[in-house]
Amino acid sequence: MFPIRPGQYRHLQPQYQKVAPPDLTSGLDFSSDPGVYSNARLKYIEAGLEPFSGELTDAHLVHFLKRTRFGATLEELRGLRGKSLDIIISGSLASFTPFTEPVNNYNKVSENKIDPDVPLGETFVQAKFNQEFEGDRIVALKAWMIGRILGSSSGIQEKMVLFWWNFLPIKMWQVFVAKSCYRYINMLHSNALGNFKTMIRDLTIDPAMLVFLSGAFNNKETPDENFARELQELFCIGKGKDAGYKEQDVQSAARVLTGWTVNWESIHSNGEPQSYFNPEMHHLGNKQFSSFYGNKVITGKAGEEGAGELDEMLDMIFATNESAKHLARKLYTFFVASEITESAEVNVITPLAAIIRQNNYNILPALRVLFSSAHFYHPEIIGALIKSPFDFILGLWRNFDMPVAESAMAEKDFYSAILWDMSGMGMEAGEPPNVAGWTPYYQAPQYDKIWINTHTILKRAIGSDSMIFWGYWISNSVNIEADLLAYVKGFTVPEDPNLLIKEFALINLGLELSQTQIDLAKKILLNGQDQDYYWSGAWLTYMASPNDQESATIVTNRLKPAFQLLLQMGEAQLM
């Protein structure tokens, strides 16, 4: 069971059973318990962006791994031990996994479903639009995304792509052009650790975004305000207390953006999807902005010079103090804590925004300072986020060292179960519910608690149970599950039940367990007995004869329910 309720994080009482969890929306009040942890306690954190100066423990290292990747492994933890924080952060920020393009792995000969434009095993990222096969290509593209995450051994790259996708989103099913979606993903990867101003300009004229937010249909006769509004409200300025842009600014921005459209021929022919500026569609009049932008006037320009109005407008937007603060807040709520307290606004957001502006919106210096800060490693920040479905499922997949697709041809079938599981938990890959992103990242007052309800918590329980007990089904009636024996062999002292449980909790759970919780899990490993040697003896007997099926079955039958219990504790939902 998962006894998380709104406002309750710490000192959760573990329970072990296979029935559906209780109603988590019963409204029980736990505020009178002084030991209960809630985000309200974040307001007492005074630490800011000053460098972290304490001892770098395993808990700190795992915290860094989980916040910058999906899950953490013992191998990754061991690779960080003994290194300075500066070297650890530099290594993470410098890593890059080269692209290999997604391929046609969706042909079904048995169903006479053969893509006529893309041979089996060849990439579709420049294939002409085909209504019948775009859905298959998009699913293959989503599986390719999962494959990159599970196949990536180090670095923050894939986590940054999720950050940007939530911040500057498209919906793949709405765009419904696979090669445009691929180009959008490529754009996110290219700019993931680069310059925010460059990212926004690339996003503004990206074919997928031009389709998603109607920019492709924005013209001088009927200016479309959709993207112009989101550019300010969601992407660059936000809705903070000092966000003073006006409706006039939305209207003027829409006129600036007229003329940027999609080359539809590039969509319906082989080759990369393209966008371009059409002077005939551009509004030639002057664009007057409000006092928030210093009463800026962008003079209307004819011909190809009209394209330059975009850069003039973006320079105007990024000259505001609020733009850098908006980006700082987005980084904070994704990587640090879901809510920004008054103290965090003063001690973290404001100085982080200054760093962003001082570095001309290059994001690397800001990330380096944030991940080095005393605030980031504060005890109340560790375990203060509820895992997203991506973090929960893909984190477990990586933590347990689950198998990955052997080739690009196997990705679609291999990762489909993961895609649909995460969708059932409220986070379908590439499909945020709206242009504001996934609701738990921005919706007050619940924020990331929105990930947890009576439906999704059961889905999470089934997801973790699948890895432990019956596996994930893939094509040809094949299922894969965690190899618990191989997994436990990688632990430091697997014959010690106390260390085994603590090490498992360190990697898979978000907070340190109480002795009562450890004893509950240990009771299972000891088969109900009181002495540690009941587990130690069973494990060492197996290790002495690893091919003996009876010995292997004994330890496996204890590990499975013990791990199930641990993963059904509330702490397993935290990072």
Q: In words, what does this structure look like?
A:
The protein has helices spanning 58-68, 74-80, 85-94, 134-151, 157-167, 172-175, 178-191, 196-204, 207-212, 226-236, 247-257, 264-267, 308-318, 321-335, 342-358, 363-371, 389-399, 411-424, 456-470, 484-489, 497-508, 515-525, 533-544, 549-567, and strands at 260-263, 274-277, 287-288, 297-298, 472-474, 478-480. The protein is mainly alpha-helical and 575 residues long. Strands 1-2 form a two-stranded antiparallel ribbon. Strands 3-4 form a two-stranded antiparallel ribbon. Strands 5-6 form a two-stranded antiparallel sheet. Helix 14 (321-335) packs across helix 15 and helix 15 (342-358) packs antiparallel against helix 16 (363-371).
Short description:
This protein is mostly helical and 575 residues long. Helices cover 47% and strands 3% of the residues.
Task: Note the main attributes of this structure.
globular, two-stranded antiparallel sheet, disordered N terminus, 3% strand, mainly alpha, 575 residues
